[in-house]
């Protein structure tokens, strides 16, 4: 094992996020097994399905870079879904709905940030607890039933196209570009990097560590809110069961995309391709008739393998 | 000794017992007081609470959580966390419901659980993966297998498992013996063996930021951490066997959110999640507090959705009150 790790070719290859390899491999599998699936229309539909996941990942990569994690995305999706489709805000405008989604996301994100940054609670426990609190509350309000219909105009926007590309995909790419600029060009991006690399060193260099962590969690909440908005638009009827597996998929896609806990490494585009890999994975699984339990196993295995890959890499560089 | 000095000494020793600040065993005394408070409230508000029938029923209800929480505590002592226990419980009930003879399926579930724990431990210690990520991934893999084996609840549980949970011996219901058996084994393991001592040593070093402290004093840290994960999974399988006997079927969703309940119980019992501080009696008290709360909320007719939310709130509260140096995961 050690010889393999010291090999320069392996070292060079291991610097490329596994998402790219997985993406190419799955593309090859599809190309060999089902070549007729590979056209822009079908791919557009499948990629459009993972847009909520893709937006959630934009937040997840941010918190994972500051050595934290956010598993409360599912609750934001259910909360926003409930708020939009129930009779609470009947016939409101597009802007109201969007503000509602963003506000609930940022609210939950800020609480997460406070628990992780100030109270120093383990991020997994804090966000998982937050998750079951909000889900419990929403299910109580909805008494376990689907709350109601999603406004039609949201559906129309979701199904529309901009220059032959589905609008949600364009929206996702624009958001990814914005996140990329935020991380590359802004002081906040530098802070995220230094806190992720070494919190103690960051503190002594005058980086506001707590503020960065809280802000990262608030932004992750914001992204979860936007993801929830897109997810809700894709539905005709509201549901209190949808999107519960998205946070864990987001973690998987982010790890696959080369973001490592406690390391400033990893950009926006690795996770982006991580999400695309998941889109292809769903296509492959559907065409090979693998159902839900098999998908769970595959998701877990992907997280584990990607984490092992990085574990070995960091062990080799010590 | 002057009376004033004696009372002062009594006060400080009581204070330190209450806060658990100077103890390896943590804040368990406070949990005990909370347990008695809740029990007192319940017995005032409802007449049947203190009846022998209800108390025995309560023990049977709390047993799976007690067993799981003890296993979880072993991992928490070394500063780890095992999020896969809920799935292991579901998986165990699914395997028992396959209809295989008891002399194959019962040892089988423990062998499988040990293998799951071994995988968790190996991935964490040898492959350098963060325990939360490793066990989170494992949670999904095992849940997937449980759902492949048994998509919906049903199946035949071996008669001996059902009898061992629902029967009585000399007039005493068998869950009481399950409790005694678990307690004796766990006490030996955690507070009465070299393995247990080493768990405290490893976790204590890690909690204070000295990752290799125990290793440098000659403790085989990787091997002991590995064994801690195996222990945790085996306890989860034991809880799964008990639950299978209680619900008399295999259910892929029976262990849902069990890991969070177990972590809450462990944290209520005064075990520090950063490792090195904790006690068996504290964890049992914590699990009993959880069981009493569930019992009380059921008596008060609170919706199960709200109950979940309240449990989440308690978890957030108890963990938020613990002090920790590290930030993040």
Description:
The complex is a heterodimer of chains A (318) and B (329). Chain A has 318 residues and is mainly α. Chain A has helices at residues 2-6, 8-14, 18-33, 40-49, 51-65, 73-85, 94-118, 123-142, 152-159, 167-185, 187-197, 199-204, 209-233, 246-256, 269-287, 292-317, and strands spanning 161-162, 165-166. In chain A, strands 1-2 form a two-stranded antiparallel ribbon. In chain A, a hairpin with a 2-residue loop joins strand 1 and strand 2 (165-166). The radius of gyration of chain A is 20 Å and the shape is globular. The two termini of chain A are 15 Å apart. In chain A, 50% of the residues are buried. The model of chain A has no long low-confidence stretch (mean pLDDT 84). Chain B contains 14 helices and 2 strands; from the N terminus they run H-H-H-H-H-H-H-E-E-H-H-H-H-H-H-H. With 329 residues, chain B is mainly α. Chain B has a two-stranded antiparallel ribbon. In chain B, a hairpin with a 2-residue loop joins strand 1 and strand 2. Chain B has a single domain, classed as Orthogonal Bundle (ABC transporter involved in vitamin B12 uptake, BtuC), CATH 1.10.3470. At the A-B interface, helix 7, helix 8, helix 14 and helix 16 of A face helix 6 and helix 14 of B.
What is this entry, summarized?
The complex is a heterodimer of chains A (318) and B (329). Chain A is mainly α.
């Amino acid at each position: 094992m050690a010889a393999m790790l010291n090999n320069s070719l392996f070292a060079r290859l291991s610097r490329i996020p596994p998402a790219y390899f997985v993406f190419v491999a799955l593309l090859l599998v599809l190309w060999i097994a089902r070549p007729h699936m590979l056209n822009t229309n079908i791919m557009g539909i499948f990629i459009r399905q993972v847009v909520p996941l893709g937006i959630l990942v934009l937040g997840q990569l941010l918190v994972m870079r500051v050595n934290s994690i956010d598993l409360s995305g599912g609750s934001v999706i259910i909360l926003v879904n409930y708020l939009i489709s129930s009779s609470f805000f009947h016939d409101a405008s597009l802007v109201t709905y969007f503000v509602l989604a963003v506000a609930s996301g940022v609210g939950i994100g800020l609480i997460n940030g406070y628990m992780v940054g100030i109270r120093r609670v383990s991020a997994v426990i804090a966000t998982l607890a937050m998750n079951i609190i909000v889900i419990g509350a929403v299910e109580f309000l909805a008494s376990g039933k689907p709350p109601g219909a999603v406004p039609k105009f949201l559906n129309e926007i979701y199904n529309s196209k901009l220059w032959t590309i589905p609008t949600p995909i364009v929206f996702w790419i624009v958001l990814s570009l914005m996140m990329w600029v935020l991380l590359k060009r802004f002081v906040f991006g530098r802070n995220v990097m230094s806190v992720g690399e070494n919190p103690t060193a960051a503190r002594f260099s005058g980086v506001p560590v707590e503020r960065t962590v809280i802000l990262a969690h608030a932004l992750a909440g914001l992204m979860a809110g936007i993801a929830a908005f897109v997810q809700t638009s894709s539905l005709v009827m509201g549901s209190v069961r949808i999107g519960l597996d998205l946070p864990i998929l987001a973690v998987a896609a982010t790890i696959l995309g080369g973001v490592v806990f406690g390391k400033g490494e990893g950009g926006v585009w690795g996770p982006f391709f991580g999400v695309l890999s998941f889109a292809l994975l769903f296509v492959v699984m559907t065409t090979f008739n693998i159902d839900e339990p098999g998908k769970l196993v595959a998701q877990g295995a992907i997280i584990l393998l990607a984490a092992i890959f990085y574990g070995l890499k960091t062990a080799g560089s010590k | 000794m002057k009376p004033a000095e004696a009372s002062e000494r009594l006060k400080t020793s009581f204070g330190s017992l209450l806060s658990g600040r100077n103890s390896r065993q943590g804040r368990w005394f406070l949990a005990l007081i909370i347990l008695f408070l809740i029990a007192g409230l319940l017995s005032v508000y409802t007449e049947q609470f203190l009846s022998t029938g209800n108390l025995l029923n309560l023990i049977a209800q709390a047993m799976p959580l007690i067993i799981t929480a003890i296993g979880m505590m072993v991992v928490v002592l070394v500063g780890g966390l095992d999020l896969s226990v809920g799935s292991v419980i579901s998986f165990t009930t699914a395997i028992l419901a396959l209809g295989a003879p008891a002399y194959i399926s019962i040892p089988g579930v423990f062998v499988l659980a040990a293998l799951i724990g071994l995988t968790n431990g190996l991935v964490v210690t040898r492959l350098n993966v963060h325990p939360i990520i490793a066990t989170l991934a494992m949670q999904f893999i095992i849940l997937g297998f449980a759902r492949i084996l048994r998509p919906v609840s049903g199946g035949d549980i071996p008669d001996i498992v059902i009898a061992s949970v629902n029967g009585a011996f000399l007039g005493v219901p068998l869950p009481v013996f399950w409790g005694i058996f678990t307690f004796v084994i766990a006490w030996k393991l955690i507070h009465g063996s070299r393995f247990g001592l080493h768990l405290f040593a490893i976790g204590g070093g890690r909690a204070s930021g000295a990752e290799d402290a125990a290793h440098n004093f000659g403790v085989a840290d990787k091997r002991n951490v590995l064994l801690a994960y195996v222990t945790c999974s085996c306890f989860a399988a034991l809880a799964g066997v008990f639950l299978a006997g209680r619900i008399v079927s295999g259910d892929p969703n029976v262990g849902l959110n069990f890991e969070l309940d177990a972590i809450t119980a462990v944290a209520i019992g005064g075990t520090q999640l950063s490792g090195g501080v904790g006690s068996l009696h504290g964890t049992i008290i914590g699990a009993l507090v959880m069981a009493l709360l569930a019992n009380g909320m059921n008596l008060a007719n609170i919706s199960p959705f709200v109950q979940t939310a309240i449990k989440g709130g308690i978890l957030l509260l108890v963990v938020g009150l613990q002090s920790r140096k590290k930030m993040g995961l």
